[in-house]
Amino acid sequence: MSVVPVRAANPTIPRRRPSGWARFMERESTLAYLFMVPGGLVLLLFMAYPFLLGIYYSLTDKTVGFADFEFIWFQNYRFLLEDTIFLRTVQNTFVYGLVTVPFKLLLGLGMALALNQTFRFSRFLRAGLLLPWIVPTAISSLAFLMLFDSVSSPITWLLRDWGLIGAADRINFLGSRANAMASICLANVWRGIPFFAVSILAGLQAVSPDLHEAAALDGASPFQRFLSVTLPTIRNIVLISTLFSLIWTFSDFQLIYVLTKGGPASSTHIFGTYAYETMGFSDVGQAAAIALSLFPVLAVVGILLLRYIRAED
Amino acid sequence: MVGSNSFGNRIFRLYLPLAFYAVFLLFPFAWMLIVSLKPDRLLLDTNANPFFLIGATIEHYRYLFTETEFLRWTLNTFVVTVGATVLSLLCSVLIGYALGRFRFPGGNLWGVVIFLAYLVPPTLLFIPLAQVVSRFGLYNQYWALIFTYPTFLIPFASWLLMGYFRTIPVELEQAALVDGATRFQAMWRIVMPLALPGVLSAGIFCFTLGWNEFLYALVLMGSGEMKTVPVGVVSDLIRSDVYQWGSLMAAGILGSVPVAIAYSFFVDNYISGLTAGATKG
Q1: Which of B119, B127, B133 is the best mutation test for A, with the most CBs of A within 10 A?
Q2: CA pair distance A116, A200, nearest whole angstrom
Q3: Ramachandran category for residue A266: left, alpha or beta (phi over 0 → left; psi -120 to 50 → alpha)
Q4: Candidates A117, A138, A151; nearest CB to B230
C-alpha cells in the first residue's frame, strides 16, 4: 500500500498512466500468486523437498550417523519383495483398511440415521458422540491398551462373571497375530465411526422430505424409500468419506504403535510402524523405501477421490 | 405409514440405536475416568468388580503433576499447536482467498495441487523430514513442529477457506471497489469479517489436529523434556510391563481436556468444518 507515495515522488513515471505498477499489483493473477507465496514456501520446504529427498534416499544405502552413502538403484525395494515381515505388513495394511472401513461406514450410516431424527438433547448427544474422533488417538488408544490387557481387562472380568470363560482363564487380546489384528481393528472402528456419521448426517440434510412423502404416498416401504430417495442423495458423500477413511487407515500409525508396536513378533506391522521400526535400526534408505511403497496405493485412492470431489462441484 | 411415529417404533429406530452408540463410543472415556480415580489397591485386585469406584482418590493426578513432566509436555504441546495454528491460518487465508476469489490461469490446477497435498499423510514423509529438519538445525526445537505441522494443516485449512470465500458474494467486494476502496481495503474490511466464521472453523481444526499429532512429534521433538503430551504419555509413562494404569488414564483424561474444551465451545463450527472438508471444496 506504500505504492502511491513512491510513484508521486518519482517524476520519471508519466502521470498519464499512473497505475503501471499499481495496476500490475491489482491484477488478479499477480495477487493470486503473491498470496500463495508464504504457504507455498512452507509446503515446498517441508513437504515437496522431503518427498523428493525420500525418493532419493530410498534408492541409496543411507544410514543414520554416516555421511557417506551410495546410490544402489532399486536394491532396497528388491530386498522388500523377499522380506517376509514386509509382505505381512502389506497384507496387514490391506486387512486393516478393508475390514475396518466397511464397518465404520455401516455403523456410521446407522448413527447418522439415528441422529437425523428429532429428539430431546440431540445437540448434546451429537457433540458427545463425536468425542472418539476429537480426542488424540494416542490417548484413546491407551484406554484400549487397558481394555485389551491380559490381566486388567474389564472385558475378561465380565466374561468370567457371566461364566462364559473359566475363573482362571485369560484372554490374550494382543498376544497372537489374529487376536491382535482383531483388537486393533475394533479400536480403529471405534475411532472412525463418528467421522462417517457426521459426514453422512450433513448429507442427509439435503434429502428432500417432499420426495420422501411422495414415495410414501405411492406405497413405498421405509426401506424402499431409503434405497430410492435417501441413498442417491448421499451417494457421493458416502463415496468421498469412504475414500478418505481408506487413505487415513492405510497410512495410520499411532493406534498400532500404542497397542502392539507391530508385535507380537512383527506380525501386526503396517507401513507406518514398520518404516518407523526400520528407521530405529538407523537404516534410512530401507525405511524410506518401506514408507514410499505405500505411495502407489494412496495415489490410486487419491485419484478416485479427486474424481468424486470434482463431480460434487 | 400408520404408527410410524408411535413409541414402539421409536424404540427400535431411535432409542435402541442411540443407546448402543452411546455405550460403545463413550465407554472407553468412562473407563478412563473410573481407573484414573481408583486407588492402586483396587486396581491390582483382579477379582473385584472393575466397574465400581470405591474410595475415589486424586492420587494419580497428583503423581502426574509432581512426579512426571506432564506440565512441561502440556506447555510444549500448547506452544507448538498455537504456533502452527497461527502460521497455518495466515498462509491458508491468503491461499484460500487467492483460489476462492481470483480468476487466473492455473487457478484450478493449484486447487487440485492443494487438495492432493492434503492427501499426503505424515507416514509418507516422516523419514526424509527428520533429515531435513536436522539439516535446518531445528531438531528437538519448537520450530521443528511449528514448521512441519502446517504441511497437513495448510492444505486442509486452505481447502476449507477456499470453499468459504466462494460463498461470499463478489458483488459486495465490487461495490466497495466502485466506491473507491482499494483491493486490500475491500478484502480486509468487507470480505474478511464475513469470512470470520470460516476462519474460526479452520482455526479450531488446526488446533485439534495439532494437539493430536503424534508421528512428527515422536520423530522430530521426542527427546528429553521437549515431548508433547501424546508422545510423553506414551513413551514416558509406560515404563515397563507393569503398567501404572491409574496415572496413564489420568494423563489420558487430562490430555483430552484441551481439545474437548476447544471443541465444545465451537461444536457447530467444528461439524460444519469437518463436513466441508470431507464433502466439498
Answers
A1: B127
A2: 10
A3: left
A4: A138
CA A25 – CA A23 distance, rounded (Å): 5
Contact assessment for residue B278 and residue A244, using Cβ atoms and an 8 Å cutoff: yes
In B, minimum Cα distance to A128 occurs at B26
Cβ contact (<8 Å) for B28 and A190?
yes
Collapsing DSSP states into helix, strand and coil, what is residue B48? Answer: coil
Tell me the domains of chain A and their CATH numbers: 1-35 (no CATH), 78-312 (1.10.3720.10)
Query: Is pLDDT of B20 > 70?
Result: yes
Return the sign of the alpha-carbon dihedral for residues A71, A72, A74, A78. negative
Residue of B nearest to A236 (CA): B279
Residue of A nearest to B206 (CA): A134
Please judge whether B50 and A154 are an interchain contact, meaning their C-beta atoms are less than 8 angstroms apart.
yes
Q: Which three cell numbers stand for residue A183?
A: 483388537
- With contact defined as beta carbons under 8 Å apart, do A43 and B117 qualify? yes
Average pLDDT over residues B174-185: 86
Q: Is the peptide bond before A264 cis (omega within 30 degrees of 0)?
A: yes
Task: Please give the average per-residue pLDDT across B77-84, as a whole number.
Answer: 97
Give the confidence band of B5 by pLDDT, cuts at 50, 70, 90. low
B281 pLDDT exceeds 60?
A: no
Nearest Cβ partner for A142 among B17, B120, B248: B248
ipTM: 0.91
**CB within 8 Å: A139 and B252:** yes
For residue B47, count CB atoms less than 10 angstroms from its CB and return exposed for 0-12, middle for 13-18, buried for 19 or more: exposed
Angle between helix axes B122-135 and A49-57 (nearest 10 degrees) is 100
CA distance B92 to B82: 15
Reduced to 3 states (helix: H, G, I; strand: E, B; else coil), residue B53 is coil
pLDDT-based confidence at residue B274 (cuts at 50, 70, 90): low
Average per-residue pLDDT in chain B? 88
Q: Which domains does chain B have, with CATH numbers?
A: 7-57 (no CATH), 68-279 (1.10.3720.10)
Q: pLDDT digit string (tens) for B232-273?
A: 999 888 876 678 899 999 999 999 988 888 887 777 766 666
Per-residue pLDDT tens over the stretch A43-100? 999 999 999 999 999 999 999 877 788 999 999 999 999 999 999 999 999 999 999 9
